[in-house]
Design brief:
61% of the residues lie in helices and 14% in strands. It has 619 residues and is of the alpha+beta class. The protein has a five-stranded antiparallel β-sheet. Strands 3-4-5 form a three-stranded antiparallel β-sheet. A three-stranded antiparallel β-sheet has the order 13-15-14, covered by helices on one side. A hairpin with a 2-residue loop joins strand 1 and strand 2.
């Protein structure tokens, strides 16, 4: 507690000393201001008197000029040659006197209206004449300000203060900076050359600057150190206040955790649990505290540097690091507003155009709007294609209005992603093209039973890249569209009647009419077989050991193809077993003596008997 009281007393003492020093400085400045006001008043009075004298001299000079003009006219009108010469000479003499008086009047006026250059209440020299748009008052004020800068300069070097010559003037310069220029009339008033006047002024200025620097350096250092300490105290108070404020904010946030932090859930997925949400809030508060502290410290440095003349340049540089980007950002935002409005108009126009197109696409898809030669299932993919084209056109229109779109970096990144997309998406693009071709070829539709290559099943999804099929064994198979386009596809659903078939082999000893009847009877007893058109049988080949019979039948439900095949095979087995006809599949070998006929019984003689088989054993 005592330590804190001592610190407070030290700060108060320091602030009091700084205040006293500043008060002394203010009194000196006030005295200087009063002195300058008094000098200005004297100068104005002197100038008013000079104006009065100049006007009287101008009246006298004008009267002399009028006399000279009268003599000149009299010399012209006189007939006597000697008289003309005498009058002309007298006229020229009066004109010369008038010119001399005019120059003297101008010099007298300049001398009377002179403006003193004052440093530390001491008049160094006078400024008599205007220079271009700058009056004598402006030139004197400028010279005083530059001399005060030299007095306050931290790294002042007397050797850098010298005399230099320009085209029409001699100048007093410090380094490369001109402090004051001596004009021709100002040198005439003093009866010296411009160089001599400039050198005299330099001899006056140099010791005065040194003396004034010695007087002001202690006072200035006290003021500067006082300001630095005051700034540091304020920063320290702000730092403590910030700590108290952010600790209070953290405590309040923790106390209100059950009220405000219930977690964030999106579609039954907990993105942030309550304790994670609280941790995130703490992180945000601490980050704001750190950023605020850094900003205060960063702004403190320019304030401290701006106090000392030697470091004012550093202060300006540090401030420019913040102000210049902010200024550029604000300027860029203001300049970008017209482009932003153009982008908004383009995006809104594109949005409503796509809405109108989506409406008509739905009308076509639902069959409300019929276009000859355009199928309803083409509506959705056609809309997607047109939407991509419209978005691409919108991007082309918007791209020039994006910030930095014309910069080399932006162009380089665009080219990089373009090349990357071209190299890495060749197969994807081929699948997309194949998907578009398949869409407009219409080889199958969603939910159709198809066979693509060796895969048979129902189409459950069609996209630009792939087609997904669910097989009869409940397997989901994904097939790239390019593979579908390059292969063959069988669509079982496109026809209302699908012909199934099955081949069996029967020996030559069974009459073909009996085989036909058995096969047709088996097909008629199968559940999924249509009676109209009726089943039929084809004899596809006469092989070495048997005849190949193919039974053909129509079914209406293509999703029952495999069930129909299984059922017809069952009935074929039953019918042939009931008739005692043997199906010669698979192959088997029979031993016969060669005398037995393989013809059916009705083709053999009535008294025909099969000869016995003789088997001889060979040792």
């Amino acid at each position: 507690m005592s330590k804190t009281i001592l610190q407070v007393l030290a700060w108060l003492l320091l602030a009091t000393s700084v205040g006293l020093a500043q008060q002394k400085i203010d009194s000196v400045v006030k005295l200087d201001s009063l002195t300058k006001t008094k000098e200005d008043s004297l100068i104005q009075n002197k100038k008013a008197k000079a104006d009065s004298v100049k006007k009287r001299m101008e009246v006298e000079i004008d009267s002399l000029k009028q006399v000279a003009d009268s003599l000149s006219k009299a010399s012209i009108s006189s007939g006597n040659k000697e008289e003309r010469k005498r009058l002309s000479a007298k006229s020229d003499s009066i004109k010369a006197l008038a010119d001399t008086l005019t120059k003297e009047a101008d010099l007298t006026y300049l001398k009377a209206s002179a403006r003193p250059v004052v440093l530390d209440k001491d008049t160094l020299f006078y400024v008599y004449e205007n220079l271009g748009p700058y009056s004598a008052e402006d030139r004197a004020s400028s010279a005083e300000a530059r001399l005060r800068e030299l007095v306050a300069r931290f790294n002042y070097n007397p050797d850098s203060l010298r005399v230099g010559k320009s085209q029409t003037t001699w100048n007093i310069v410090y380094g490369s900076k001109v402090l004051f220029s001596v004009l021709a009339n100002e040198a005439k008033l003093q009866g010296l050359s411009q160089q001599q006047v400039a050198e005299n002024y330099l001899k006056i200025i140099k010791p005065k600057i040194i003396v004034f620097r010695k007087k002001s350096v202690v006072r200035k250092w006290i003021a500067e150190i006082g300001w630095v300490i005051l700034i540091l105290v304020i920063v320290y108070v702000l730092y403590r206040a910030m700590n108290v404020f952010f600790k209070y904010a953290l405590k309040k946030t923790y106390d209100a955790r059950e009220k405000y932090f219930n977690g964030i859930t999106i579609k039954n997925y907990e993105v942030l649990a309550p304790h994670r949400q609280l941790q995130l809030a703490f992180l945000v508060i601490k980050t704001i505290r750190l950023v605020t502290l850094l900003i205060v410290l960063y702004l403190t440095l320019p304030l401290i540097f701006s106090i000392f003349p030697a470091t004012k340049g550093i202060a300006s540089t540090l401030l420019s690091y913040i102000l210049d980007p902010l200024r550029r950002a604000v300027t860029s935002i203001i300049n970008y507003i017209p482009h932003l409005f153009e982008i908004i108009v383009i995006v809104i126009g594109t949005r409503y155009l796509l809405k109108a197109m989506h409406y008509f696409a739905n009308e076509v898809a639902e069959g409300k709007l019929v276009i000859n030669g355009f199928y309803a299932d083409w509506a959705a993919p056609t809309y997607n294609i047109v939407r991509v084209i419209v978005y691409g056109f919108m991007f082309v229109l918007v791209f020039p209005h994006l910030p930095g779109s014309d910069s080399p970096i932006f162009k380089g990144v665009s080219v990089f992603f373009g090349v990357l997309f071209s190299l890495g998406s060749s197969s994807a693009i081929s699948n997309i093209v194949a998907g578009l071709v398949i869409t407009y070829m219409r080889p199958f539709q969603k939910h159709d039973r198809v066979k693509i290559g060796d895969v048979m099943g129902d189409v459950i999804e069609k996209s630009l890249l792939v087609t997904r099929i669910k097989t009869v064994k409940n397997e989901e198979i994904t097939i790239p569209n390019s593979s579908i386009l390059n292969g063959h596809t069988i669509n079982f659903t496109s026809s209302k009647q699908y012909l199934i078939h099955s081949t069996i082999t029967i020996g030559y000893d069974v009459p073909w009419r009996q085989v036909h009847a058995l096969l047709i009877d088996a097909a008629d007893n199968t559940k999924y077989i249509l009676q109209n058109p009726p089943p039929f049988v084809l004899q596809t080949s006469l092989d070495d050991f048997y005849v190949s019979y193919e039974v053909n039948a129509y079914i209406g439900d293509t999703t029952k193809i495999q069930e129909a095949h299984s059922a017809i095979h069952q009935h074929i087995q039953d019918k042939f077993n009931e008739a005692g006809v043997e199906i010669l599949s698979p192959h088997y070998r029979a031993v016969r003596d060669g005398g037995q006929q393989t013809n059916p019984a009705e083709y053999l003689p009535k008294d025909y008997q099969s000869p016995p088989i003789k088997v001889k054993r060979v040792d």
